[in-house]
Amino acid sequence: MTKFMKSLTLATLLGIVLVGCSAELPTPDLAVTPFPMGTYKNSAFEWVFEDNGIMFIGYLDNPEFPGSYTITGDQIVFTEEHECPDGEEGTYQWEFDGNALSFKVLRENCSGRSGRIVWRPWVLEQ
Fold first, then answer.
1. What residue segments make up the domains of the chain, in order of their start?
2. I need a surface site. Which of 38, 41, 81, 108 has the fewest CB within 10 A?
């Protein structure tokens, strides 16, 4: 084989390898599970999440205090005036295990709300 043919073969093989390596790799699905709307209970409290961003919280069988929430991925931002009359927002990371919601504080200026939210998991009513 001539020197030219060896170079051409090597260049072709190198080109094939480079094209194969540059192909897009599949990206992992990083989507967060959709937030599970519904009614949750936690000891003496009940929390209702509606699909329109409205929530109600209160004592068992009487979730009378309204508020609102927004979801971005695995974060939820609460605004309610029962515990936080100045309208401070609280940002939490949420996790649902198929049975209960748990929250972790990310940013919160209203201690009354944070204690109630993170105290123990909120069990979904079936």
1. 38-124
2. 81
Confidence of residue 115 (pLDDT cuts 50, 70, 90): confident
Class of domain 38-124: mainly beta
- 3-state SS of the chain is CCHHHHHHHHHHHHHHHHHHHHCCCCCCCCCCCCCCCEEEEECCEEEEECCCCEEEEEECCEEEEEEEEEEECCEEEEEECCCCCCCCEEEEEEEECCCEEEEEEEEECCHHHHHHHHCCCEEECC
Q: Tokens standing for 82?
A: 């029962």
CA atoms of 18 and 23, how far apart (whole Å)? 9
- pLDDT on residue 25: 44
